[in-house]
Design brief:
single chain; alpha/beta; Conserved hypothetical protein from pyrococcus furiosus pfu- 392566-001, ParB domain; two-stranded antiparallel ribbon
């Protein structure tokens, strides 16, 4: 059988630009998974050097040559979880490479800061990394996608990341929804959380208040007064919604528990729709009829449908 002809210059294809971030990080790796790792460049003294970075390739990079991104959306890293990951790395190595971009003679993390931090704790000298030449906008988009899909961001961090894409790069809420594969209403609800007082946002970051609690407090004129009360009394989201309604209407009744049966049912269903919508990042509608009913989840793209299927089946992204 004749040998295959050597590829001509015309037959060689330029690497494709990263697109479709809503599909997740798979678009970042693409054909990289089939390439052999590229060894670090050697300097004159035999030490690894980052002076000649390999663009669009997988290589092993010195942990000391990697720098975190100061604009990384995720600011909170659980110390115990990092120790567990570090233990795993000592035994099995780094299973998934991080993503970096060249920055002078070093590299800046695009995605995978948690793995880099754990590698430091594991005292690893090298870590596998995919090198990409990315703009500031693309870097922030990818960092948000990775953290959102792995659910590593608290809702305030996520909202702040969306706000930065909107303010610095002019992203509309529709564009943001396309980037992360969630609904526009979910993006809008998250960004409204930034209107809350700093003390209330701090309680959300500390997971003492849920997103549902925080969203119910957005229109409250006395959110700072209500927030500690909610935490202390362990009030539900429905309780908070009633308190806020009374506050807005001037009703000073001390009990948040009293309501008509119809209003109670409506509030329960609304709260459940909001809770499920927050978990999925998509619009959820519940229609009740007696003891049964229907649950509808709206999606605008096939990416969002894929996300729903992954959540329902428990498949990891």
């Amino acid at each position: 059988m004749a040998d295959d002809p050597a590829p001509t210059e015309k037959s060689k294809k330029a690497p494709k630009r990263v697109t479709g971030l809503g599909r997740g990080l798979n678009s970042l790796f693409g054909d990289i998974q089939r390439e052999e790792p590229i060894a670090p460049a050697e300097s004159a003294d035999g030490e690894g050097s980052a002076a000649s970075p390999v663009i669009d390739g997988l290589r092993s990079i010195a942990v000391a040559d990697i720098r975190p991104n100061p604009d990384q959306p995720r600011q909170h890293f659980d110390s115990d979880a990092l120790d567990e990951l570090a233990d795993s790395m000592r035994q099995r190595g780094v299973i998934q490479p991080i993503v970096v971009r060249p920055q002078g003679k070093t590299f800046q993390i695009v995605a995978g800061e948690r793995r880099w931090r754990a590698a430091q704790r594991a005292r690893l000298h090298q870590i596998p990394a995919v090198v990409r030449d990315l703009s500031d906008e693309e870097t922030l988009e990818i960092a948000i996608v990775e953290n959102v899909q792995r659910r590593d961001l608290n809702v305030i961090e996520e909202a702040e990341a969306y706000a930065r894409l909107s303010q610095d790069f002019g992203h509309s809420q529709s564009r943001l929804a396309e980037v992360v594969g969630k609904s526009r209403s979910h993006i809008a609800n998250l960004m409204r959380l930034l209107e809350l007082p700093a003390t209330v946002k701090a309680l959300v970051v500390d997971e003492k208040l849920s997103m549902g609690h925080a969203r119910a407090l957005i229109n409250a004129p006395n959110a700072e007064e209500l927030a500690p009360q909610i935490v202390k009394q362990g009030l539900s989201v429905r309780d908070v919604e009633r308190l806020v309604r009374k506050s807005l209407s001037g009703d000073k009744s001390p009990s948040p528990k009293k309501a008509a049966a119809t209003s109670e049912n409506d509030a329960d269903i609304q709260a459940l729709e909001n809770h499920l919508g927050d978990l999925l990042g998509l619009k959820v509608k519940i229609q009740s009829s007696g003891q049964g009913g229907t649950l509808a989840i709206e999606y605008a793209t096939l990416d969002q449908l894929d996300l729903i299927c992954q959540r329902l089946t428990g498949e990891h992204i």
